[in-house]
Inverse folding.
């Protein structure tokens, strides 16, 4: 048996979109090898979510529910994952590449002496071997790697695969939990929200990003205005973050987040390799910069040479006019 | 309190990356190596804790080639007390799983309270080793932290997740991985550099930490490296802002269809 297990991530009772992307891709792989597709939901009360997961075509949905999962717990989730892998004999374990997955899944892989590769942009099977692709060294090269252990773990970059509904009537099975409060060595005591309810850029399908050319925190007001107008997240280059114009959670690039939206609009960003590392897998890249020699113009699909303080407001006006 | 910080020597960000003859690795000649950026936040946090508390001993450790000695000396110059170099013969030989096992084996007979890591290493960008080590040792972990306090044998830290932070409480011993924003890493001082020159750096082989090289399982291997596909040259638009903005909006609407 070489069944696949997909961890379905939930936050505040909602399933992450990226988890459906992984489930869809995993469905393709299981069909190819005639295996079973299992989905794992962990939380305080995840039963109401099973109907949504069913739409994406799993064979079995395993629910692990406990009051101990009121908030996320690294030790608890890892224990559940290990129990499920054992009980369902999962061979390949897949999840979306997120802060949560990176926190608890590698520990489970290590305990099982299994290989793991994270943030992959492609995944396939050659015989019984998982083969993945992943950018390395600020996306200067792409590595094709094989996972050689009996069990194999992979996290997949959000926004790379498209989630698609599938037919199927998954059966739901409740996991008998074998967990006490004392097993949890670390505990989330509080969720601390940011200042505003913003779209998180790691999963956003559109991002408007500002750089040194914004000249100060005021510059980001126009960036936010454009972002709000088109329903995009707000990104930033390292120099904008280091200058204190915007918080680090907006930073795209080598010491920030890696994103792959459908649309990435870079305003006043020169396009240093450290920045490109974080956004070059975007589907469409728009650059607005007054320097025609800026490296960002080498990677963009459309580049506007001009003063962003004039072009961005003009674009906002144009969108408002035409909608 | 015993603190260990694990650091990695990685190719300089600006380095030109070329694929070597095997097609499976990069050409490492002529490349300058540097401390992985996130490791600097880990080192700084260890130094801050040693300044704020009494009886703290700090040790910086790397798994690498002899040339990684420079990395250890840099961190000794910043004020870390001790160091250790776990020798490997080749670069690229060990993946996350085997590196985590090497680190866990090194720590087996050690007395530790806090283990610091950068949240990921530049280059491989896997962010796997810290959580793997915590799993192997069976200790508490808090990853990607931007804030931390140690109080009465407990650690309270804030870790960055998508769209918010999680405030996490953990028991000691605990593994911590550092995210940008945690602190402002210091520069090494001239006095520190002089003092670090005199320090002995203990070296050890896998045998020394009780691992058999031939039995150490490597979970993943690179089969092929490729240059990313060249992107077709984009369309460059110049002119009056009103006109270029119009072209842009038209493009977003008709070609990408996002509006």
């Amino acid at each position: 048996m070489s069944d696949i297990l997909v961890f379905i991530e939930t936050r505040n009772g909602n399933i992450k979109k990226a988890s459906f992307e992984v489930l869809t891709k995993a469905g393709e792989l299981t069909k190819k090898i005639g295996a079973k597709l299992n989905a794992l939901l962990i939380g305080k009360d995840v039963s109401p979510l099973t109907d949504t997961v069913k739409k994406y075509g799993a064979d079995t949905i395993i629910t692990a529910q406990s009051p101990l999962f009121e908030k996320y717990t690294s030790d608890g989730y890892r224990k559940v994952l290990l129990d499920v892998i054992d009980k369902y004999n999962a061979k390949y374990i897949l999840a979306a590449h997120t802060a949560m997955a990176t926190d608890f899944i590698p520990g489970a892989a290590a305990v099982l002496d299994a290989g793991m590769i994270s943030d992959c942009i492609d995944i396939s099977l050659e015989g019984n071997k998982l083969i993945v692709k992943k950018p390395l060294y600020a996306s200067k090269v792409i590595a094709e790697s094989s996972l050689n252990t009996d069990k194999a773990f992979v996290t997949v970059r959000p926004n790379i695969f498209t989630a698609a509904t599938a037919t199927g009537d998954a059966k739901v099975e409740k996991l008998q939990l074998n967990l006490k409060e004392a097993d949890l060595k670390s505990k989330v005591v509080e969720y601390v929200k940011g200042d505003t309810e913003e779209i998180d850029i790691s999963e956003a399908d559109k991002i408007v990003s500002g750089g040194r050319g914004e000249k100060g925190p005021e510059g980001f007001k126009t960036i936010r205005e454009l972002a709000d107008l088109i329903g995009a997240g707000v990104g930033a280059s390292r120099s904008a973050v280091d200058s204190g114009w915007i918080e680090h959670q907006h930073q795209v690039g080598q010491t920030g987040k890696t994103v792959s939206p459908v649309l990435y609009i870079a305003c006043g960003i020169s396009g240093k390799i450290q920045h490109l590392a974080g956004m070059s897998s975007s589907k469409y890249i728009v650059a607005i910069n007054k320097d025609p020699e800026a490296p960002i113009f080498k990677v963009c699909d459309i580049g506007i040479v001009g003063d962003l303080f004039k072009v961005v407001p003009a674009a906002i006006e144009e969108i408002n006019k035409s909608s | 309190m015993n603190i260990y910080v694990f650091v990695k020597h990685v190719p300089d960000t600006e380095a030109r990356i070329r694929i070597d003859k095997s097609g499976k690795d990069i050409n490492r000649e002529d490349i300058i190596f540097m401390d992985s950026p996130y490791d600097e936040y880990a080192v700084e946090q260890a130094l801050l804790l040693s300044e704020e508390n009494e009886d703290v001993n700090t040790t910086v450790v790397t798994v690498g080639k002899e040339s990684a000695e420079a990395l250890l000396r840099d961190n000794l110059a910043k004020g870390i007390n001790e160091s250790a170099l776990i020798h490997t013969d080749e670069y690229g030989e060990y993946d996350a799983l085997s590196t985590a096992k090497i680190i866990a084996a090194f720590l087996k007979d050690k007395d530790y309270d806090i283990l610091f890591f950068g949240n990921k290493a530049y280059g491989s960008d896997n962010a796997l080793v810290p959580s793997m080590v915590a799993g192997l040792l069976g200790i508490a972990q808090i990853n990607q932290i931007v804030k931390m306090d140690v109080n009465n044998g407990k650690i309270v830290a804030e870790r960055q997740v998508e769209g918010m932070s999680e405030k996490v409480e953990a028991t000691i011993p605990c593994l911590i991985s550092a995210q940008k924003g945690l602190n402002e890493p210091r520069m090494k001082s001239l006095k520190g550099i002089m003092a670090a020159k005199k320090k002995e750096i203990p070296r050890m082989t896998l045998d020394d930490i009780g691992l058999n090289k031939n039995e150490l399982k490597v979970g993943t291997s690179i089969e092929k490296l490729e240059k990313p596909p060249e992107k077709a040259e984009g369309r460059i638009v110049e002119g009056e802002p009103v006109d270029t903005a119009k072209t842009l909006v038209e493009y977003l609407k008709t070609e990408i269809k996002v509006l």
About this structure: The first strand of chain A starts at residue 3 and ends at 8. Residues 17-33 of chain A form the longest helix (17 residues).
